[in-house]
Every structure is written in structure tokens, then in C-alpha cells.
Write a structure and sequence with these properties.
CATH architecture of one domain: 3-Layer(aba) Sandwich
Helix content: 25-40%
Family: Belongs to the ABC transporter superfamily.
Keywords: ATP-binding, Cell membrane, Membrane, Nucleotide-binding, Transport
Largest sheet: 7 strands, mixed
Distance between the termini: 52 Å
Strand order of the largest sheet: 7-8-9-4-10-11-12
GO cellular component, one term: plasma membrane
Bound molecules: iron/sulfur cluster
Number of strands: 12
Organism: Streptomyces fumanus
Strand content: 15-25%
Protein name: Peptide ABC transporter ATP-binding protein
């Protein structure tokens, strides 16, 4: 059984509850080597019609958070604490039967690799029609008509004919469009997109991102968009949450976080991004070191072993005291607000160009 503990109320300073409201979420996995604390004390909200971009390196807890929202963890090895409320419905304590009703209906997911979501044995049209028939009680004929309609909406030419094709008869970009059609077929309130364009070339990626934005306008869904690419976030999201080692370290609107980032880890991410106008022969500046083991995460600030600014904080607070994320526009770092502004303006921004 999944171990579940409900948290009483919301932690202070997480703002008003959104359409999706996550409070003090912790996810731990039992492994042969010990307990992995994959997500630790995470709180955030997403409003209807808005896109939250979650960014961070591999292992930062982005994907685990979203699989938890969808209730897709192995119940025998996972312990979940905290609260996930979607449109008033608590998901952490929901039964598998209740989650089955929600998945593909109220909440849908677009994966990085369409081949993991599309079966090679059934036509694309059938695979789009099935969740619609299951959740709405529509007939086969109605389901098929809806599948053709959705393929048309996501820009597949000649959808009535192409609905009869199998996934291998589609190009990579078309398969991604088909998966988006499948995710949106029941008009979900929340769409979770996990690196949905990483495997695609740049032109197709831009087309898919534009398509998602158009469909969000039409369907009014809330979107949680996971990526390691701040450029994609800048294009897609309204709000950003930066994650490191299972926790959020910075959040704000896209404009706030990208124009005036306040956390040393966000500075590192920005600094390690290739830029169109940069000297292509110059090496990128990756963040030194690697993300910590979540079996035994560092004490205090989890970023402290990699942080170039910890000597600016008085005493050994960075090593002993865990910085907390405050309300709304906030970063979890012991530097003062003045230090964050000055360091960014004088030391980081000139490097970013
Ligand atoms: Fe760096 Fe200290 Fe801020 Fe952590 S709390 S990001 S170690 S300055």
C-alpha cells in the first residue's frame, strides 16, 4: 500500500489556493540502498488557463511530482505525504478507481516519447477514440468521429484517412500531435506535459509549442510544463518554478524569474544555456559539481556544495540551516534581497549579455 499522510492545512506563505493546489508534498521511494527523498516539502498552485513551467536538472523531482499528481507510482515502494487538491478533489488519498476516472478525463499527460503512450497494435484513431468512449459513454461511431475531429485540430492533414494509420506510419512530429490529440480528447482541466518536444527537431518543436498554446486558449486547461530548457519555458509558461534536489528554490512569473532571477542555482542554469548571439567556439559554463544523491542530501541548503556565493552569507548558515521559499515571488536562499539584486546586476547579468 502507498503510505499516505495528510498534512493539516497549508504551510504559511504559499499564496491563495489555485485550481491545482499542492501543499507540502513529499515523495519517498524505498530502494535497496535506502530511502530516496525524491520530493521534499513542495508547495505550488496552478490556475485555470495558466501554464506553470517547472525547470531543473535531471533528478530535481520535476517528473516525480507530476507522476504523483497522476497517481502513477508503485504503491508498494512509495510514501507520499502532503496534499494535492485538484478542483476541490484531494488526490493523495484518492483510491485507484477514483484516479482512473480522473486520468485521461480531468487530468491528462503528454509524454516525451509518444511511442511509450501509443500502442503499435491499434490504429491512431482507435487509441484517441477509446478514452473518449470510456469517459463519456460515447458510441464507437461517436468516438471515431471525435478522434478524426481531434486529429484535425492538432493539424494532421486528411485526418479521416490518417486516423486509420498505425503509429509507425506517422512521423515523429505527427505522433507527438496524435498524443496531444489523445491527451485533449476529453477536454481535460489539467494537462501535464513532460519534456514534450525534447525528441523533436527545432522546427517541429516550435510547431508543437504553438499548437499547445493555441489549444490551451481553446480548451482553457491549466498546463504544467516540465523541461530542462529555459528557452522553451520562456516561450510557453506564465509562471516558473525552479526545482533543485526535490524542492522548489525559486518561483515567480516568467518575466520576474528570467529578467531578475534571485537564486544562485537559477543564475547557474541561465549561465549554462547556449545563446544564439554567443561565440560558438566559447565553452558553455556548466554549474560545477553534480546534483546531490537524494539518499543522503546535503545539510542546510541542498545547493551549498555547488554554490559559489555561500561565503557571502554570514557564519555557516548555508551548511546548517535550510532556506525556505516564501510567498509568491520568492527564492530559497540566505543571501539578503539586496545581495541578490547586486550580485545579479554586477556579476551575473554582464556574463549573460
Ligand atoms: Fe548558496 Fe547559501 Fe543561497 Fe544556498 S543559501 S544558494 S548555499 S548562498
Amino acid at each position: 500500500m502507498t503510505t499516505v499522510t495528510k498534512t493539516e492545512g497549508a504551510p504559511a506563505g504559499t499564496g491563495p489556493e489555485g485550481f491545482l493546489s499542492v501543499r507540502d508534498l513529499s515523495v519517498r521511494f524505498a530502494t535497496e540502498d535506502g530511502v530516496v527523498r525524491a520530493v521534499d516539502g513542495l508547495s505550488f498552485d496552478v490556475e485555470r488557463g495558466r501554464t506553470l513551467g517547472i525547470v531543473g536538472e535531471s533528478g530535481s523531482g520535476k517528473s516525480v511530482t507530476n507522476l504523483t499528481i497522476l497517481g502513477l507510482h508503485n504503491p508498494r515502494t512509495t510514501t507520499i505525504d502532503g496534499e494535492i487538491v485538484l478542483d476541490g478533489k484531494e488526490l493523495v488519498t484518492a483510491t485507484e478507481k477514483e484516479m482512473e476516472k480522473l486520468r485521461g478525463n480531468k487530468v491528462a499527460m503528454i509524454f516525451q516519447d509518444p511511442l511509450t503512450a501509443l500502442s503499435p497494435y491499434y490504429t491512431v484513431g482507435r487509441q484517441i477514440a477509446e478514452p473518449f468512449m470510456k469517459h463519456t459513454g460515447a458510441s464507437k461511431k461517436e468516438g471515431w468521429a471525435r478522434a478524426v475531429e481531434m486529429l484535425g485540430k492538432v493539424g494532421i492533414p486528411n485526418p479521416a484517412q490518417r486516423a486509420k494509420d498505425y503509429p509507425h506510419q506517422f512521423s515523429g512530429g505527427m505522433r507527438q500531435r496524435a498524443m496531444i490529440a489523445m491527451a485533449l480528447v476529453c477536454d481535460p482541466d489539467l494537462l501535464i506535459a513532460d519534456e514534450p518536444t525534447t525528441a523533436l527537431d527545432v522546427t517541429v518543436q516550435a510547431q508543437i509549442l504553438d499548437l499547445l498554446k493555441d489549444l490551451q486558449q481553446e480548451f482553457g486547461s491549466a498546463i504544467v510544463f516540465i523541461t530542462h530548457d529555459l528557452g522553451v519555458i520562456a516561450d510557453m509558461a506564465d509562471d516558473i518554478m525552479v526545482m533543485y534536489a526535490g524542492s522548489a528554490v525559486e518561483r515567480g512569473t516568467v518575466d520576474e524569474v528570467l529578467r531578475a532571477p534571485r537564486h544562485p542555482y537559477t543564475w547557474g542554469l541561465l549561465n549554462s544555456m547556449p545563446r544564439l548571439d554567443s561565440d560558438l567556439s566559447a565553452p558553455l559554463a556548466p554549474i560545477p559539481g553534480s546534483p546531490p544523491s537524494l539518499l543522503s542530501p546535503p545539510s542546510g541548503c541542498r545547493f551549498h556544495p555547488r554554490c559559489a556565493f555561500r561565503d557571502r552569507v554570514a557564519g555557516d548558515r548555508c551548511v546548517t540551516e535550510r532556506p525556505l521559499l516564501g510567498p509568491d515571488r520568492s527564492s530559497a536562499c540566505h543571501l539578503t534581497a539586496e545581495q541578490k539584486r547586486t550580485i545579479f546586476a554586477e556579476e551575473i547579468k554582464p556574463r549573460l549579455g
